Amino acid sequence: MSGASGTARTGRCVELCGETGEPARLTVAELAGGWPEQRAEVVFDCATSGPRHHTFTGPLLRDVLLGALPGAVPATRKDRAGRLLVIAGADGHRAVLAWAEVDEEFRYAPVLLAVRLDGALLDAPHLVVPADRCGARYVSAVTGVRLVRPGLPVAAGAERLVSGAG
């Protein structure tokens, strides 16, 4: 096995899934070679170690999902506006993004599935949200990204709130 990637040694991959179709499983090497890499020089406040300065490179999360899960992202703006991305890390940390944050017709934030940190190839991708001032939505060692349409639970008597009636 090649020593060029930590994933070749560990077999780590990230699972991408939507509401329909088969999930895709991608290694760091596949992420690094399958999409154009973007570069993000970031500063974020870590709760345990203060300000952190890093350079991350990797593909845009949006591009990976559109390429790896054809048909999973709805075509209409209104349908896409109601979708969430749930990102899970190997340590149990989770972050949630609205699809509209990464969609080119909405905010189009350059959120990365980083494969390199300060030039070094990572063993597992990291979620990088360059616009965030704190590091809470940065997820190390991403194991899964799920595109979901959340349902709104309706408590008895609360139909007015959900339907807009009243």
Structural features, described:
Helix content is 20%, strand content 35%. The protein is α+β, with helices and mostly antiparallel strands and 166 residues long. A five-stranded mixed β-sheet has the order 2-1-9-5-6. Strand 3 (38-46) and strand 4 form a beta hairpin. The longest helix is centred in the middle third of the chain and has 8 residues, at 61-68. The radius of gyration is 17 Å and the shape is globular.
Largest sheet: 5 strands, mixed
Q: Name the strands of the widest sheet in spatial order.
A: 2-1-9-5-6
Average pLDDT level = 85
SS-derived structural category: alpha+beta
**Low-confidence spans:** 1-10, 160-166
Helix coverage percent: 10-25%
Q: Give a count of the beta strands, DSSP E runs of length 2 or more.
A: 9
- Tell me, briefly, the overall form: globular
The arrangement of helices and strands along the chain is HEEHEEHHEEHEEEH
Strand content: 25-35%
- How many helices in DSSP terms? 6
Q: What separation lies between the terminal Cα atoms?
A: 65 Å
Radius of gyration: 17 Å
Offer a concise description of the structure.
By secondary structure, this protein is an alpha+beta fold. The chain has helices at about 5-10, 30-35, 60-70, 75-80, 100, 160-165, and strands at about 15, 25, 40-45, 50-60, 85-90, 95-100, 110-115, 120-130, 140-150. The chain is globular and about 45 Å long.
